[in-house]
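Q: I'm writing up a methods section and want to include an example of the input and output format. Could you take the sequence below and give the corresponding predicted structure tokens, formatted cleanly so I can copy it straight into the document?
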Amino acid sequence: MQTETTYGELKRPYFHNINGLRFIGAILILTFHSFSLSENIWGEFFDDYWFLKVRFLVGRGHLGIMLFFVLSGFLITNILLWEYKTKGRIQLFNFLIRRFLRVWPLYFLIVLFGFFIFPILPNGIETVHELWRFLLFMPNIDEIINGPNDSINFLSVTWTIGVEEQFYLLWGVIVTLFTLNGPLKKNFVFILGFAVILFAICFRYYHLGDNRNLYYHTLSVMSDLAFGCIIGAMAVNGTAEKLVKHLAKWKIVLIYILSLIYCLYEGHIFKNDLFVFERIVPAIIFCFVILDQVYAENSFFKLDKIRGFFFSGEITYSIYVLHSIYIFYWAKYFEVNGYTTEIWQFILFYALVLGSTYLTALVTYYTVEKPIFKLRKHFR
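A: Here is the clean output for your methods example:
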């Protein structure tokens, strides 16, 4: 196993195939948004029987958000607990600065573009989003309040960044506080993780019928991150590897098949009051996928082995932040020029969104993300 970060004589493990998972998540979300954010401009073919089937499959792409949340919980908990395990303490300030260096540059570029540059460009409009919430990393709260009245979707996608930043701070503070006055209790993180999941279920029950709070509020979706935190703690104490390392290939394949079937019909299983449990099963599925990709010796595939997936995972954050801008502009171009009546025109639209997003992500990765992220070496 490769290593990434040195703490004393021990090195924090580098998790193979996480980059590939990131890229899969980004493509799922980009594809989902390419179909949904521009759906009003396309002709009759968009509602044809077979195209509706494709749209149904693509609609599962929103699960990519849950994958990112679970991954984030897994990684940040592993980082925090590994630091405590090797150093005997958690340097919360350094941890948060490293996360900010990773997230803030592109986030604020999008906020700057959405609030100040986009309105003065051709086809630009003023946003009704409120800047102060974005500056305080509460875009998800602003989306709940102002989202229905604002069509600037590339500002809306930042809601997930807000959720993660809020959770990083809360989780980091709580875990750090419990390590200040003595050794971290053996099962503390697991108890805390399950408590967060239970609280999220209660929050969703209280807000049943309020789709915007159910989908965007941190207290509703933090159960996804908590599941990731639990397997992150399992990775540090070694139980995660033991759980899946020697799992038979036929069992892994069967779990993937059952998981795929569930994900296809996700949203149609938990009804009425049971809707509060809808996020639980996909989160568990993604926990297994992460552990399988990282630890299982009998996996039938490893994502980083697919050509280009490892590197593409490096630019996933840029892909996620940028893709809705290109969806907006390419959709406007196709609509103005009347290229919206044939399936091949939609395929071309999707290819242009994907290609232009990927190329721009390469530029922002090398000119913005990578140079700034290198500064994290000063906050070890």
